[in-house]
Design a protein that fits this description.
The chain is of the alpha+beta class. It has 3 domains: 94 residues, GIY-YIG endonuclease (3-Layer(aba) Sandwich); 98 residues, no CATH class; 75 residues, no CATH class. 28% of the residues lie in helices and 23% in strands. The chain has a 4-stranded antiparallel beta sheet with strand order 11-10-9-13. Strand 9 and strand 10 form a beta hairpin. This is Excinuclease cho. Keywords: DNA damage, DNA excision, DNA repair, Endonuclease, Excision nuclease, Hydrolase, Nuclease, SOS response. GO terms for molecular function: endonuclease activity; hydrolase activity.
Amino acid sequence: MQTRVSSLGLLVPQPKPRAKPSPACVRGIDAASLEALPAEAGIYRFLDASGAPLYIGKSVNIRSRVQAHLRTPRENAMLRKTRQVDFIRMAGETGALLLESQLIKQWQPPCNVLLKTAAPAYALYLPKGSLQPQLVDHDDADRYSAHGLFASRRTAEAGWRAQVRRHGLCHALLGIENTTHGRACFAHQLGHCRGACIGLETRIAHTRRVHKALKQLDDYAWPHAGPIGILESDGELTQVHVVENWAYLGSLSASVPSLRLPRGNKLDVDTFKILFAPLAAGLLARVDLQMSCDGRGVRRCAFAFPGQEG
């Protein structure tokens, strides 16, 4: 490590200068593809000699973000393999996030770590005659008549406990707390239980409220009868992102005004994480889609963008 003499005559160690990316790394990348990168939102892909993605990312400013990659020494190994960088413009950050998640799962780029696998999803199922909900895979939610949508066992437990407190349910009857027969549970002593444990509420009434509390968790599951459209625009590009059962199905635009919908959309927890909170807070603009179905049961959705005929 280099040193310098301070004003007090002390030897002060100097940090090593930060290594710069090898010019050879950048020279190996098609210059025209770098020049074509826009300063708007979307996704970008670092491609190898065969055209396969090494890395997929998103940004509200594609050009700036890719330039940051080119200046990052620890990414030299990826840059040495890169021959071209391409991009897909999106109308904003929401669309970029949705498309990035979808493409990473589709292409499995070796330099991406997150989003490569579909995260598990869980629901709560109440067995007949029981008041203790059990976790089941969300894909089996309809078969079990299960409720809710949770990304982990921990969040499922926390979500159910929040409902228990919100509805004043009895911890003893739910198996959360052990108590001596005839004595109030500790939750009742704290004012969080209406007293089903000591006969202040009938078990039938309490059971009904348990089912009501579980039913309210369905707000986290897909609450719509079909696909919805989310409008996004940056002033130049306007898109409608199509989502159903918390799965991103694609984006409509003036050049692509209709979309064929796949059958049996599998829930995507990452899409849920991207959209649930801003949708619930009213931060995203929802629009109505024009739905159609042919004689073979193939569904299509469309949106009439301004300036289109019909």
